[in-house]
Request: fold
Amino acid sequence: MFKIVKREEMTAGSVILNEIEAPAIARKAQPGQFVILKANEDGERIPLTMAETNPDQGTITVIYMVVGKSTALFKTLQVGDSYQDVIGPLGKPTHVEKVGTVVCVGGGTGVAVLHPITRALKDIGNNVICIIGARSQDLLIMEDHMRAASHDLRVCTDDGSYGHHGFVTDVLKQVMETEDVKQVVAIGPVPMMKFVAEITKEKEVPTIVSLNPIMVDGTGMCGGCRVSIAGENKFACVDGPEFDGHQVDYDELMQRLQAYCEDEQACMDGDCLIRS
Amino acid sequence: MKETKASKGKKATIPRQPMPAQDSDVRRRNFDEVPLGYTPETARAEAARCLQCRKPACVEGCPVGVDIPAFIHLIKEGDFTGAIRNIWGKNALPAVCGRVCPQEIQCEGVCILAKKGDPVAIGHLERFAADYERLNGSGELPPRAEPTGKKVAVVGSGPSGLTVAGDLVQKGHDVTVLEAFHKPGGVLVYGIPEFRLPKEIVAQEINFLERQGARVECNQVVGRTVSIEELFAEGYQAVYLGVGAGLPRFLNIPGENLIGILSANEYLTRANLMKAYLFPKVDTPIPRGKHVVVLGAGNVAMDSARTAMRLGAESVKIVYRRSREEMPARAEEIHHAEEEGIEFFLLTNPTKYIGDEKGRLTGMECLRMELGEPDDSGRRRPVPVDSSEFAMDCDLAIVAVGSGANPLLTQSTPDLELNKWEYIEADPETGKTSMRGVWAGGDIVTGAATVILAMGAGRKAADSMHKYLTWGW
Ligand SMILES: Cc1cc2nc3c(=O)[nH]c(=O)nc-3n(C[C@H](O)[C@H](O)[C@H](O)COP(=O)(O)OP(=O)(O)OC[C@H]3O[C@@H](n4cnc5c(N)ncnc54)[C@H](O)[C@@H]3O)c2cc1C
Ligand SMILES: Cc1cc2nc3c(=O)[nH]c(=O)nc-3n(C[C@H](O)[C@H](O)[C@H](O)COP(=O)(O)OP(=O)(O)OC[C@H]3O[C@@H](n4cnc5c(N)ncnc54)[C@H](O)[C@@H]3O)c2cc1C
Ligand code: SF4
Ligand code: SF4
Ligand code: FES
Reply:
């Protein structure tokens, strides 16, 4: 059993933070790695990236958006409740290197995933510019954390309720015109990553993206998480989740994320809340 | 059949006791076990067919050398408790092996009675003895040696790892089994379906192991959560790697990433381990195809096809590029699949998947094949028939064309020597690997094989590990 020691609602009801006791995982985890959580006996195995780890306290922190049946179940768990299973750390850690100026682009809950990577990039001596966005101000998360983890933070909202009115990609274009950008890291909804990669490809700026296909085991054993990278099949759980953003078949990934849409809908009210 | 020698001939004319089974029309839509098991009476009648050969061929045919005539004799005498204790001497999981061993190419295949008629139903009898003990036995634990104070880590809780753990715990060692999944049992829980091997049986075997003092820790992905070096640093003196062959193979033909194409590993894991056939009562979904195609013809393919039927498919087709003779599945599985209405498209090679604008599978293109010259494996190589392309409609395809070595653990352990297929190099007699203090066995050494071979490898390794822990490498 893996006890929740802290819980926060980061936006009204839709983005939730859980700090969970998992000492063995906390000891080993590195930025970019994820865990698989299962709430109870009949639960689904759900992958979430670790937004923070605290090896001394023996805890890991995950931040998730409530999108479907399982994340809605997670939302009901309170401090003192436990997940039955937490497995990890899984996936390859982010390759962090000193290259000069790096732009980190985050959208939605992708910002949570981006945070430890941003901090690591800054710690190793890069000049880190951060661009984060959300649909509106109330959905924006971790602004203070991201400000602390970078040298320069730009905020955007789709509806203009806060910061720059528009998409993160608009701001990225501006930054790339004025700065000598050596690397871009983009984590967020698939269309966002796709457009970021299109922009950076023109200028041949190396770009890392983090992919979130549907997973089961997270150990390379089922092949459910396969993604096309430069026309070749890779398993995101062991070969990723981070890949060269210029090689990813985003359209295929978006389609594959819809695989269980109808089934999930059958047990959720309302529209399918696909995050892409 | 002619009667030659009076005594032998007479016994052989008793017909083999049929295994009662759920009716095929009913069972094709439920997940309950198909064969219902012998009663004590039918078991004793079947046991009476055994000729008690002085040089029993059947024992030679069993990879772990179960003393078949002896346990069968005990069943005939009605000493079911004695029978199971006799089997345990060689085989720790008889309830499993009795159900899943390919008996027709092992013990029963070489039974003397098979020459002229039906062999003794050794598998059914082994199953009977184990089930009888499970339902009626005392649950008494086997004797355990004095604690040695030596710590052993067993990585992977499939049949191979469970055998090692059971043997070493009885020899007094302090055993911990580390399993990546949230439930122990390996293929026995995530691969082989409920209707063939009830999960309760596996759970009871694990419980038996724990009652003997072994610890089973799930959610431990060795190579990620903890490395082999760290296990030694934590005080483990010997490590057994029984991590199986968990890497799905695909056909690598166009369209394979359409929605509706799953590896058998994924499909069966969803169905068995995650119990997705109960969705939405449980949270894991599984695609329920109307027209299902299963690629391959081994046990994994039969299990996938029969699962799809139980999930409500209107049609299920096995597509296999060789002929019936080469199908690797157990005879009983093929027979059961046919009875349940699964169609076989043999000498048929899929060449392409077809999808719609939403990226969902709608059909497959195939080529007809004919048998040519024998290949390396001695099987006649299938060659395509010119312009024999044809299409079939399907909305779910399950790829069951074999598996390879999962590199997760071996990549994180560079000192471990691998063969050219990336399986671990281990001494076939002792299971020793190139790393001191590390043994390996089962599918991760041989490639995908059978439960009993994985167990046999585990037993040899356990003997070698015990020697090492007692006297050194
Ligand atoms: C490596 C990895 C790391 C991730 N990290 C985070 C994270 O830090 N925070 C976070 O909020 N989410 C993260 N995700 C996504 C998260 O796993 C999914 O949102 C979650 O599985 C949805 O489960 P559900 O049962 O609530 O929704 P479902 O009811 O299963 O699905 C709701 C909708 O989302 C789609 N969907 C299903 N699985 C996924 C998936 N894996 N990713 C995206 N959409 C999916 C479905 O098709 C459906 O349309 C990560 C995914 C991966 C693979
Ligand atoms: C669907 C299916 C049907 C089959 N039917 C039959 C049959 O009818 N008869 C028969 O004889 N054989 C059958 N087989 C084959 C048989 O099941 C295998 O040969 C046998 O299970 C191999 O045993 P094992 O202990 O080597 O590995 P497995 O049973 O594969 O167990 C390996 C275990 O190790 C765990 N693991 C992997 N990596 C790690 C890691 N890094 N850290 C911790 N744990 C890890 C896995 O999760 C798994 O639980 C079938 C196989 C399948 C898939
Ligand atoms: S273990 Fe398998 S091969 Fe050996 S006797 Fe039993 S059923 Fe036959
Ligand atoms: S070969 Fe057949 S008849 Fe002879 S001992 Fe074995 S099971 Fe009995
Ligand atoms: S989640 Fe199963 S292979 Fe990646």
Notes: The longest helix of chain B spans residues 451-471. Residues 250-401 of chain B form a domain with the FAD/NAD(P)-binding domain fold (CATH 3.50.50.60). The pocket of flavin-adenine dinucleotide (ligand 1) is lined by residues A 34, 44, 46-49, 62-65, 67-71, 109, 112-113, 212-215, 241, 257-258, 260-261, 264, 272-275 (CB under 6 Å).
